[in-house]
Amino acid sequence: MADALAIASWANLKRLIDRDAYTSLFFSRTIYAVNWYNIAALFTFIALDFNLNVSGLGIAAACFYIGVGLFQVPGGIIAAKYGARNTAIVGVLIASVAVLLTALTSDFYQLVLLRFIVGVGSAFFFAPGVTLIARTFRRESQGFGVGTFQSAFYVGGTLGLFAWSVLAEMAGWRFSLITSGVLSLIGGLLIFLKVPKDELRSDFVIKAEDLRRILSNRWLVLISLELFGIGSGTFLISSFMVYYLEQSLHLSPSFAGIIGSLTPLCAIVASPVCGMIYSKTKNARLLLFSLGVLLTAALGLDAIGSVPFAAASSILAGFGSGAFTVGYLAARDSMAASVEYESLAVSWVNTIQMLGGFVSPIIFSLLVLSFGYGFAWLTGGLYTLVLISTILYPVSSKR
């Protein structure tokens, strides 16, 4: 099995068209993810400085997801008009500056506002990044390419949860944020230098009818609801696992970071594999539901309140995260006849999960304070199961 995957991966890599552009996008996506995940790893240190509890982490996570969610569609529309490359560069710049300013913040409310702005920049980068990374591969290997783009996210997540917690222990949480902010700026510079400029059509005009057709597409709405379920579950694990292990199961920050990083580590493998499976089968519905069930099981394991089960949960959640790759590819394929709107289709299916995702951390933290972690994890699992089941509704995947 491993040999077959290695051979398939090598065959897809040989279809890479622009290595420099691919490398710059992979690096930028990696640091993008570091800035997504590292707050969860750093929150123990931030909480000591600002005298906070788990509800503070819930608020910070929620504001970040609101920023990402609200600006997904605007980012897609801007990319359609001004190009995916230009939009991605602007997004990286916004997020980088906000991360650097977060390292200088003097109170919790400033941190919350800046996390919102990091979310805005992340939204502008994400969907255009999917479009750009796909273009660096030949058509038959674009599923693998988008999968590796997701892998970069989980490489960054692994670093953000583990390496940045170690860095914070050694040099402080502020220094760790300055480091990731500077690296993010470098990523934006690489995109500017290495990614080819968009070939913009001078006669292209964004039409209200086109926007209405995309935003009301039933298949895209179903994918959105599915990713809402996947996102709700993975947000809980990525945002709270490290803090839960430290505060409830009494692990050290480094050991908790190792277990928390198992989710993005496993997703590094799952994302390109799921991309390849989708490219071969085009069966998005079955793949999405199966991966959603896997994530539901992961949340159920956390309710047991045991370190080994928490580690198993992190692993299962990582493999379940492959659903994002499948969802983005299915959304992009639905716009096959409208190249300019590819980024918008991807950003649209990401919008609901991000906007809905802000509710999950808040409710979860309230459930923890009222009933404990076991009840909160179990409720999150049942909630996720209901949402991911919507993909079974019989709607055509064609435009």
Structure description:
- It is a single chain.
- The longest helix is centred in the N-terminal third of the chain and has 32 residues, at 19-50.
- By secondary structure, the protein is mainly α.
- Helix 3 (54-70) crosses helix 6.
- It has helices at residues 2-13, 19-50, 54-70, 72-82, 84-102, 108-135, 142-171, 173-194, 208-215, 218-247, 253-260, 262-281, 284-302, 307-320, 322-333, 342-357, 359-371, 373-388.
- Helices cover 82% and strands 0% of the residues.
- The model has no long low-confidence stretch (mean pLDDT 86).
- The protein has one domain: MFS general substrate transporter like domains (Growth Hormone, Chain: A), CATH 1.20.1250.20.
Q: CATH homologous superfamily - what is it?
A: MFS general substrate transporter like domains
Level-2 CATH architecture: Up-down Bundle
Tell me the domain tally. Answer: 1
Distance between the termini: 35 Å
How many helices?
Answer: 18
**Shape annotation:** globular
Q: Tell me the fraction of residues in β-strands, as a range.
A: under 5%
Written as H for each helix and E for each strand, in order along the chain, the element string is: HHHHHHHHHHHHHHHHHH
Low-confidence stretches: none
Largest sheet: none
CATH class: Mainly Alpha
